[in-house]
Design a protein that fits this description.
Low-confidence stretches: none
Radius of gyration: 20 Å
Number of strands: 7
Helix content: 40-55%
Largest sheet: 7 strands, mixed
Shape: elongated
Length: 253
């Protein structure tokens, strides 16, 4: 492989933030000399996550072996995932608008036909189900751990404790029809044809308020590793948490 110069569409401050976290972990573990410094390790991990470069290609670009690149990426993901907020922390501050948006998405994976739990009938492909809670402007507040793609959105939301947590805190939740029957503080559109005008108007207002929630998934999938994850399904939850921590650092920086 032949290395070449390229650009990464991530702010310098985010790379520097990640490098300081890596430095702190190395000091904590009293690590000996490494082939790559903290900044270069952070950059390697971000290249893999943001551009979905294979470990072999990223390793060639940074002058290390594929195994070393894999260890560096895994270590960085672990450090970042530890800093991702949990559901209770994310719901601690209610947006001024008084509601949040709940939705789910599928992260495509390269599974085979025999992996039925990972096949989503809705999306007609294998993947992992991830739930998101977003602010009314689409800013993500919390991403869930990943479940097999065949998991229904409502089932996933209940499994993660989203419905109960929002009910406990009396947080109004706007969601699509996939969450019908959630009850509590979850509001979904009315279902059916030829609805009375007041119900039809409710559905229009509901859709208008919920639409910005798609921006949360747009931000998530701007990290191209989620467009076609080649890693083990066991690692996707940690990667989602790591990206959430990166997004928080990006916004606060």
């Amino acid at each position: 492989m032949v290395p070449y110069r390229a650009m990464l569409d991530v702010p310098y401050e985010v790379v520097e933030h990640v490098s300081w976290l890596i430095h702190a972990r190395r000091c904590e573990r009293k690590s000996r000399w490494r082939r790559l410094g903290c900044f270069r390790q952070a950059l390697l991990a971000l290249v893999h996550l943001r551009k979905n470069e294979t470990l072999a290609r990223a390793a060639a670009g940074f002058g290390v072996s594929t195994a070393t690149a894999g260890r560096y990426v895994a270590e960085t993901v672990e450090i970042l995932a530890e800093r991702a907020p949990d559901l209770r922390t994310a719901l601690r501050t209610l947006p001024p608008e008084g509601f949040v948006i709940l939705d789910g998405t599928l992260i495509p994976t390269d599974r085979i036909a025999a992996d039925k739990p990972y096949y989503s009938q809705k999306h007609r492909q294998h993947g992992m189900n991830v739930q998101v809670i977003a602010r009314p402007d689409g800013t993500p507040l919390w991403f869930s751990r990943a479940l097999p793609g065949r998991t229904h959105d409502l089932t996933a939301a209940r499994a993660h404790g989203v419905i109960q947590a929002c009910l406990t805190r009396q947080v109004l939740v706007l969601a699509d029809r996939a969450y019908r029957g959630a009850n509590g503080t979850v509001r979904t559109p009315y279902y059916g044809r030829d609805l009375p005008e007041k119900y039809a108007q409710f559905n229009r207002d509901h859709a208008r308020l919920r639409a910005p929630g798609e921006r949360a998934f747009a931000r998530l999938k701007a990290w191209r590793i989620f467009r076609k994850a080649r890693c083990s399904t066991n690692n996707i939850s940690r990667i989602v948490a790591a990206v959430q921590a990166l997004e928080i650092a990006w916004r606060s920086g």
